[in-house]
Design goal:
single chain; alpha/beta; 8-stranded parallel β-sheet; disordered N terminus
Length: about 475
C-alpha cells in the first residue's frame, strides 16, 4: 500500500505538470481573441476582413441572422455563424439527424460574439428534434465566459440535445427579455431598407442570360455605390458581376418591385476577381462590401449549393435557403434553411452603422457561467461544393491562402481553405497544431506510464526480496 500510494502521488504530480504545460486540456484549445494586455480584439479594421478559416478571429456583438417570423432548420443544413435572433419560434430538426452549429462554426468568417454572450435568442419556443444536436459556441472561451448563451421567450422542447459549452441557457423569459437588446430589430431593418431604397443609382445593371452585371459609372454616394434592378429581372439569375467598384466603397443593390425572387447562385465576380470560391484572397472583402436590399419582395429563394456573396435585407419577405450565405441575413418573415451542408457565414456589411460589426458585445445581463465539462467536439457536415466556372463567368483565380488579420490573443492559425473545401472527417475546427499537441501529450503519457510500471515492478521485487 505504501508503494501504491507513492506511485499515485507521483502520477498526480506528473499529471499536474502536464496540465500546467498545456499538454492535457479540459476543453478546446481555441479561444475568442480577448483579454490580452492591449485589450480584446473586437471588429476587424476596414479592408482586413478575413477569408474563410477555422479559428475565432474577432468579436462582434451585432445580429448576424434575423428572422421576424419562425426559423426552421431541417435537411442537412450545417451551421449558422454569429448571433441569431428569431422573433418567432425556432425549430431545429435535421433529417436524418446530426449536429447544427450556432455561433462558432467549423469554417467561417471567425467573427462571432464573445464567449458567454448570447448566440441564440428566440422570442417564442425553441424545439430541438430527436436526433439533432444543437451545439452553441463550441470551444469558445475568454476571460468573460465560456461557450454561447441561449435565451428563449417560451419553453425549450429538447427531444434532441442542446449544448451551450458552459454558456447560460434561459427559458420562459418572455419575448422582450429574450430578444433584448434586439427586440425591435425588425423596425431597424425596415427603416434601413426604406432609406437605402431612396438612394439614387450610381451605376448600371444589365441582365444577359443568367448573368447580371453591375457597373459603376462614377463617384459613389459618399463611400457607397448604388445599383437598382427590378425584382422580376433579378429572378432566375445565377451569376453576378460587379465592375469598376472604387477601392473601399461599399455596394447596395436595390431590388425594386413586389415580385418574388428565386436564384441559384453559381458565381460572383468583383473587379475582375472570382470571389465566391474559398481560395479567393478577396472572399471576405467582397462578402462584407455587398448588400442586396429586397425592400418589397414577398419571398426570397436561394437554391442550389453555391455561395451567395453579400448581406441580405428583406424586411417583408419569407426566405428559403439551400445555398450558403456570406453576409448578414435579415428577413422580416419566416426563414427556412435546409440545404446539403448549408451554412451562413457572418460577414458584417460595411455600408451602414446599423449592420456593421459592433465594437462592443451586447450585455443583456446574463450571469457568467461555470466552465463546461469536457466533451467530445462536434463533427459538422462537409462544406458546400464550390460551383465550377463557365465561359460567361469570371475566371477563377489561382488558389492563394486567405489573409486573416491576426488577433491580439494567440489562437491556432486557421487551415488555408482550398477552392473546394472538403469534409476532413475531423472535429470542429481541428488543426494540425491540435493534432500535434495531442500526439505530444500521448507520447509523454506513454513514457510516463511505462516508467511508472517499471518503477512499481522494481519496488515490488525489492519488497518480496
Amino acid at each position: 500500500m505504501h508503494v501504491t500510494g507513492r506511485t499515485a502521488g507521483r502520477t498526480g504530480s506528473a499529471l499536474a505538470v502536464l496540465l500546467s504545460l498545456g499538454l492535457l486540456g479540459t476543453g478546446s484549445a481555441f479561444a475568442t481573441p480577448s483579454g490580452s494586455d492591449s485589450g480584446p480584439t473586437y471588429c476587424p479594421s476596414s479592408g482586413r476582413l478575413p477569408g474563410i478559416g477555422h479559428s475565432p478571429q474577432f468579436i462582434d456583438g451585432n445580429v448576424a441572422l434575423f428572422a421576424g417570423g419562425d426559423y426552421t432548420v431541417d435537411g442537412s443544413a450545417a451551421e449558422a455563424e454569429g448571433l441569431l435572433v428569431i422573433k418567432g419560434d425556432a425549430t431545429l430538426a435535421k433529417d436524418p439527424g446530426g449536429v447544427f452549429n450556432i455561433g462558432r462554426v467549423g469554417a467561417g468568417s471567425g467573427i462571432l460574439p464573445d464567449a458567454g454572450e448570447p448566440m441564440l435568442a428566440v422570442g417564442g419556443k425553441l424545439t430541438v428534434a430527436k436526433g439533432t444536436k444543437v451545439d452553441v459556441g463550441f470551444g469558445v472561451t475568454s476571460r468573460s465566459g465560456y461557450g454561447g448563451a441561449v435565451r428563449v421567450g417560451k419553453q425549450i422542447d429538447e427531444k434532441g440535445e442542446l449544448t451551450t459549452n458552459g454558456g447560460a441557457r434561459s427559458a420562459g423569459l418572455g419575448a422582450e427579455r429574450a430578444l433584448s437588446p434586439y427586440q425591435s430589430f425588425d423596425r431597424t431593418i425596415g427603416d434601413e431598407s426604406s432609406s437605402l431604397g431612396k438612394l439614387k443609382a450610381t451605376g448600371t445593371s444589365v441582365r444577359a442570360g443568367g448573368t447580371v452585371t453591375f457597373r459603376s459609372t462614377g463617384a459613389g454616394n459618399g463611400k457607397l455605390q448604388v445599383f437598382e434592378v427590378p425584382a422580376a429581372e433579378l429572378d432566375g439569375a445565377s451569376s453576378f458581376v460587379f465592375e469598376s467598384i472604387p477601392d473601399g466603397d461599399s455596394v447596395v443593390v436595390n431590388v425594386t418591385g413586389s415580385h418574388a425572387v428565386s436564384m441559384a447562385p453559381m458565381s460572383v465576380g468583383f473587379n475582375d476577381d472570382r470571389v465566391d470560391v474559398y481560395s479567393s484572397a478577396r472572399f471576405g472583402e467582397a462578402a462584407s462590401r455587398i448588400l442586396y436590399n429586397f425592400e418589397d419582395s414577398p419571398s426570397l429563394t436561394l437554391g442550389g449549393g453555391g455561395n451567395f456573396m453579400g448581406s441580405i435585407l428583406a424586411p417583408k419577405a419569407s426566405a428559403d435557403f439551400t445555398a450558403s450565405t456570406n453576409g448578414r441575413v435579415y428577413v422580416g418573415g419566416d426563414m427556412k434553411t435546409h440545404g446539403t451542408g448549408n451554412e451562413s457565414h457572418n460577414y458584417p456589411w460595411t455600408g451602414s452603422p446599423a449592420f456593421t460589426c459592433k465594437p462592443e458585445p451586447s450585455k443583456p445581463g446574463t450571469p457568467t457561467p461555470n466552465p463546461p465539462e469536457p466533451e467530445q467536439p462536434s463533427q459538422p457536415p462537409a462544406e458546400p461544393g464550390t460551383p465550377a466556372p463557365s465561359g460567361s463567368r469570371p475566371a477563377t483565380p489561382a488558389p492563394t491562402p486567405t489573409g486573416a488579420e491576426k488577433s491580439s490573443q494567440p489562437v491556432p492559425a486557421p487551415s488555408a481553405p482550398s477552392s473546394e473545401p472538403k469534409d476532413d472527417g475531423g472535429f470542429l475546427a481541428s488543426t494540425g497544431a491540435q493534432v500535434g499537441m495531442y500526439a505530444t501529450a500521448a507520447g509523454v503519457l506513454g513514457g510516463l506510464g511505462a516508467g511508472l510500471l517499471m518503477f512499481t515492478r522494481r519496488r515490488r521485487g525489492q519488497i518480496r526480496g
